[in-house]
């Protein structure tokens, strides 16, 4: 908690320094970002600095030789570099702590590569501008992803910290993050006992999700305090990285995937999925999740979860959309829009959520989604063995002990889809 308060102080300071002339603004951003990585990662912060400047050199080479497909090559380079750093660093705890920061650096680099390749940007920014963007204290540690344009538009016109509304939004996000960290570290172990095996599975997954909510809300607080220009996506919070209610009380896995980390979802959709759609939707989804998991580093548990949730959500999406078409009812994975007269305006379904049997089907799928999230989330409990290495065998055994029931449920869904299709 002490480190997060320091991070807030750095961003408050940056919000004033950002009003300086361009060179000093970018210089202060990179220096405060360096200090932020140091207080969180200590000596491990040189990996973040190394990744940022090696990436700049690679982008410079691509621009100098006018190489096509800058974005795709940048993705490959980021994956190779992250894998190499993780192999070199033998202390897995250090890399585990800075994994998120390395992901943000990679996302920024890849977005620059695609934007230059598509002529959204004329050329690679100057080194001091690039350093300010990469190491900006608003998101270099906790995220979220911020576009290069949003970073550059920080100016006296966008400095709104004097607004009572913005101050309240920063305070509310900070308060929410504190609530979730206390839930994650203190209360949930006492609220949910070890008596029933499924409750243990659900509790362990919920603890992981609450730690994610803590990071997400604190990252928004830092973003707001920094004064960086952003599009307000919530009247209450100002900006949203995650939507806990969509995850804890889900309709299907589709909104869970979107609401888990909204900026990353939009980034993946814009820069990765859109460039892979020509290979077919299912292949594009699998490749997108493979790239996403690879950018997180050599984390087989996370890769297994990401690939599984990609397949699970795709199967559920196809099954529910097919059932909605067959039954002419509002039971698709995405919620249908209903007009004032109670009619479906999304697909024109005859049977809407006014009917009890439609509500029941949606409720049953929602319960299955909660169960699947507990099943998937338990694998992300990154326990450490005696050799200070993340034990793959121990983590995969958790699914084995649960008889892989999550995968079996989705396999049954897929069989139902094939039968209904024919």
UniProtKB/TrEMBL annotation:
Record InterPro entries: LPLAT_7/PORCN-like, MBOAT_fam
Entry keyword annotation includes Chloroplast: no
Bilayer topology term: Multi-pass membrane protein
Domain of life: Eukaryota
GO BP terms in the entry: lipid modification; Wnt protein secretion; Wnt signaling pathway
EC supergroup of this enzyme: transferase
Catalysed reactions listed for this entry: [Wnt protein]-L-serine + (9Z)-hexadecenoyl-CoA = [Wnt protein]-O-(9Z)-hexadecenoyl-L-serine + CoA
One Gene Ontology molecular-function label: Wnt-protein binding
Annotated signal peptide: none
Keyword annotations: Acyltransferase, Membrane, Transferase, Transmembrane, Transmembrane helix, Wnt signaling pathway
Subcellular location as annotated: Membrane
PANTHER family per UniProt: PORCUPINE, PROTEIN-SERINE O-PALMITOLEOYLTRANSFERASE PORCUPINE
Similarity comment: family membership: Belongs to the membrane-bound acyltransferase family. Porcupine subfamily.
Protein's name in the database: Protein-serine O-palmitoleoyltransferase porcupine
Lineage of source species: Eukaryota, Metazoa, Ecdysozoa, Arthropoda, Hexapoda
């Amino acid at each position: 908690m002490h480190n997060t308060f320091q991070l807030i102080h750095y961003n408050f300071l940056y919000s004033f320094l950002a009003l300086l002339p361009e060179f000093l603004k970018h210089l202060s951003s990179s220096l405060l970002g360096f200090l932020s990585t140091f207080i969180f990662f200590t000596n491990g912060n040189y990996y973040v600095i190394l990744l940022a400047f090696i990436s700049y050199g690679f982008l410079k080479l691509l621009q100098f030789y006018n190489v096509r497909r800058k974005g795709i090559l940048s993705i490959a380079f980021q994956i190779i570099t992250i894998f190499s750093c993780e192999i070199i660093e033998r202390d897995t705890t250090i890399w585990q702590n800075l994994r998120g920061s390395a992901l943000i650096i990679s996302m920024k680099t890849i977005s620059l590569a695609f934007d230059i390749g598509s002529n959204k940007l004329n050329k690679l920014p100057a080194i001091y501008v690039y350093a300010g963007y990469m190491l900006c204290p608003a998101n270099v540690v906790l995220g979220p992803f911020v576009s290069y344009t949003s970073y550059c538009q920080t100016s006296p016109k966008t400095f709104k910290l004097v607004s009572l509304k913005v101050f309240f939004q920063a305070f509310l996000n900070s308060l929410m993050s504190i609530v979730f960290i206390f839930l994650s570290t203190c209360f949930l172990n006492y609220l949910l006992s070890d008596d029933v095996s499924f409750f243990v599975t659900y509790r362990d997954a919920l603890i992981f999700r609450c730690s994610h909510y803590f990071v997400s809300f604190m990252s928004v607080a830092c973003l707001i305090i920094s004064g960086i220009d952003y599009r307000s996506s919530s009247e209450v919070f100002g900006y949203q990285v995650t939507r806990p209610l969509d995850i804890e009380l889900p309709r299907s896995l589709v909104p869970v995937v979107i609401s888990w980390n909204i900026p990353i979802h939009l980034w993946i959709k814009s820069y990765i999925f859109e460039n892979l759609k020509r290979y077919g939707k299912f292949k594009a989804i699998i490749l997108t999740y493979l790239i996403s998991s690879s950018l997180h580093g050599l984390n087989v548990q996370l890769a297994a979860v990401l690939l599984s949730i990609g397949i699970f959500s795709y199967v559920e999406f196809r099954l529910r959309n097919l059932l909605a078409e067959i039954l002419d009812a509002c039971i698709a994975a995405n919620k249908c829009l209903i007009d004032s007269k109670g009619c479906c305006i999304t697909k024109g379904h005859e049977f809407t959520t006014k009917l009890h049997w439609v509500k029941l089907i949606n409720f049953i799928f929602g319960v299955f989604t909660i169960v699947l999230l507990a099943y998937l989330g338990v694998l992300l409990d990154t326990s450490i063995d005696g050799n200070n290495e993340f034990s793959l065998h121990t983590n995969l055994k958790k699914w084995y002990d649960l008889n892989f029931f999550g995968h079996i449920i989705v396999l049954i869904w897929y069989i139902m889809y094939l039968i209904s299709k024919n």
